[in-house]
Specification:
Mean pLDDT: 83
Strand content: 35-45%
Oligomer: single chain
Low-confidence stretches: 1-34
Helix content: 10-25%
Largest sheet: 12 strands, mixed
Number of strands: 15
């Protein structure tokens, strides 16, 4: 984001140190707080907003503890919508298409239950096996997120403890799905049980945060006035972090998420992945809901082999 006027650089180091650099003078102000995870570069527009009531400390805490993103996906289970689904599987080497699914579906939410109708479906390659089961793990994960079999009842959009609860009493396959969902729905958080990763996904932990540069700016996104929060790996740590990009636009009016871009990559002898995700959300009545998702992933697991899959999903409520 480019400003015509000089900018001010404010760094938050456990306590928040605000340093203003102008062409003729420099000044500093310290706010008494120790809640911050790392230095944060804050644009001048936001500093001026803080003089008019914008609470920077409160906003940073909201970023660290945000649940609106995950809640938006859970809220999808409570509403009726039409979806356009486009899943493409590529050969392990090159960009040749191996299999695909393109479909239109309609979820119907009624009396606390939901069902799904397939309005149209086109399939190529070995997307399904003979029993019409998914041949690809990414497709199976997609289906568990956005497709419904039969009637499902008794769901809610409560988020507290849900990701942790989803790991209890499940087999290894279901636990792996739950961890992948956490990477998607709660990016930047600590994820338990992924071998050889430790806490590297937890970008707000102090020992991981020091590997990133953080920036807070003002920017319109999809026609909505937003605060843009961005984490970029420092060059010396680029090969030793999980999130290669982490960018979120928060609606200024209530700090709900309007859009998010994030890229993850990590490699071990047992597995590797390189994934790029984009999500747009909109307010629909009382609910914040996803309207567009794009995913591009290349990953390998010792027990599954390699998959190169991309998908897009569009939702109309």
């Amino acid at each position: 984001m480019t400003f015509s006027a000089p900018y001010r650089s404010y760094k938050l180091l456990g306590t928040l140190l605000l340093s203003c650099w102008c062409s003729t003078q420099a000044a500093a102000q310290v706010l008494d707080t120790n809640t911050y995870f790392a230095p944060i570069l804050i644009d001048e527009v936001i500093i001026k907003s803080s003089d008019n009531g914008f609470d920077i400390k409160d906003f940073i805490e909201r970023i660290k503890n945000d649940t609106t993103f995950y809640k938006a996906f859970r809220s999808m289970h409570l509403v009726t919508y039409n979806a356009e689904n486009d899943i493409r599987v590529f050969e392990k080497k090159g960009d040749k298409l191996k299999a695909s699914l393109n479909s239109e579906t309609k979820q119907i939410a009624r009396n606390g239950c939901r069902t799904m109708n397939v309005l149209d479906e086109k399939v190529t390659g070995d997307f399904y096996n003979r029993k019409k089961e998914y041949n690809y793990y990414t497709a199976e994960l997609y289906a568990s997120l956005f497709f419904t079999k039969g009637k499902v009842c008794g769901e809610d959009n409560i988020v507290k403890g849900q990701l942790e609860q989803s790991l209890k009493g499940k087999g290894s396959l279901e636990k792996n799905k739950a961890r992948l969902k956490q990477l998607m729905f709660n990016p930047g958080s600590r994820i338990q049980g992924i071998p050889l990763m430790g806490n590297k996904s937890a970008i707000f932990d102090s020992d991981i945060a020091k590997r990133y540069d953080f920036r807070l700016a003002v920017e319109d996104k999809n026609g909505v006035p937003c605060y843009r929060f961005e984490a970029t790996p420092k060059k010396e740590y680029a090969g030793d972090v999980v999130y290669k990009q982490f960018k979120t636009w928060f609606r200024q009016s209530d700090y709900s998420i309007v859009s998010r871009d994030y890229a993850l990559a990590y490699s071990t002898l047992a597995y590797d992945f390189d994934v790029v995700i984009h999500v747009d959300l909109q307010q629909k009545g009382d609910l914040l809901l996803p309207t567009y998702i794009s995913y591009k992933g290349n990953w390998y697991a010792f027990t599954k082999g390699r998959e190169k899959v991309s998908f897009t999903a569009k939702f109309d409520y």
